[in-house]
Write a structure and sequence with these properties.
The chain is built from two helices and four strands. Strands 1, 2, 3 and 4 form a four-stranded mixed β-sheet that branches. The chain has one domain. The longest helix is centred in the C-terminal third of the chain and has 17 residues. It is an alpha+beta fold. The two termini are 23 Å apart. Bound molecules: zinc ion.
């Protein structure tokens, strides 16, 4: 597993949330990406906040938001 960053995309009620530069672990063989528990919780928090204010597409940078 390698340290990497990825883009997280989630469809919310009123739009689509895109989070850039999310830290993840990446499988060096198949390229599959995994989030740690801490990151998952942080993303969940971000998407709850985003759901209140989102319209259409919202793009945030994990480094600035979390
Ligand atoms: Zn793999």
């Amino acid at each position: 597993m390698l340290d990497a960053t990825t883009i997280y995309v989630e469809k919310l009620r009123n739009g689509i949330l895109i989070v850039k530069n999310v830290p993840c672990k990446k499988c060096s063989q198949c390229g599959e990406e995994f989030f740690s528990m801490t990151i998952m919780k942080e993303i969940e928090k971000l998407s709850k906040q985003a759901e209140k204010i989102i319209s259409e597409v919202m793009i945030i940078d994990y480094n600035n938001a979390a």
